[in-house]
Design goal:
This protein is an alpha+beta fold and about 140 residues long. It has one domain: Alpha-Beta Plaits (2-Layer Sandwich). It contains seven helices and four strands, in the order βααβααβααβα. It starts with a strand and ends in an 8-residue tail after the last helix. The structure holds 2'-deoxyadenosine-5'-diphosphate and magnesium ion. 2'-deoxyadenosine-5'-diphosphate binds next to α4.
């Protein structure tokens, strides 16, 4: 196991529901260290670049529309095995299938509007963290 950093987004639905603080508190409670945080609003094109690995998927256009529909809060969390642990705390992509107590079960609405994003691998984190943050903004 290694200390990892992972990119988490509170998606537009989570911001609209006013649960960003609850999401942040959960990661603090689980022992992660906050390395960076900002609120911003993506254009549809920027959302498309962030989710470029999904460009051939049937839901890509809907996903980019949703991710640019309002402000998001981007954050980087650090900890032992952070990438997999954050994914476990988030729960399954579809909130209806997510385990009780997971962030998506608690705050997600449907498979598209599922409250949070978390990097799914070291490779993804290495693309996603610099997408939002410069080196100067990452304070370990
Ligand atoms: P995850 O966010 O759990 O890593 P993913 O990488 O498969 O899931 O998909 C990225 C996002 O795309 C997901 O959080 C919500 C959206 N999405 C996935 N499957 C979808 C579907 N069947 N219909 C609509 N949106 C979907
Ligand atoms: Mg994914």
């Amino acid at each position: 196991m290694a200390v990892e950093r992972t990119l988490v987004l509170a998606k537009p639905d989570a911001v609209r529901k006013n649960v960003v603080g609850k999401i942040i508190a959960r990661f603090e409670d689980e022992g992660f260290k906050l390395v960076a945080l900002k609120k911003l609003k993506l254009t549809k094109e920027q959302a498309g670049q962030f989710y470029i690995v999904h460009k051939e998927r049937p839901f890509y256009d809907e996903l980019c529309e949703f991710m640019s529909s309002g402000p998001i809060v981007a954050m980087v969390w650090e900890g032992e095995n952070a990438i997999a642990r954050v994914r476990a705390i988030m729960g399954a992509t579809d909130p209806a299938k997510a385990e009780e107590g997971t962030l998506r079960k608690l705050y997600g609405s449907n498979v598209g509007e599922n409250a949070v994003h978390g990097s799914d691998s070291v490779e993804s984190a290495n693309y996603e963290i610099p997408f939002f943050f410069s080196g100067l903004e990452l304070i370990g």
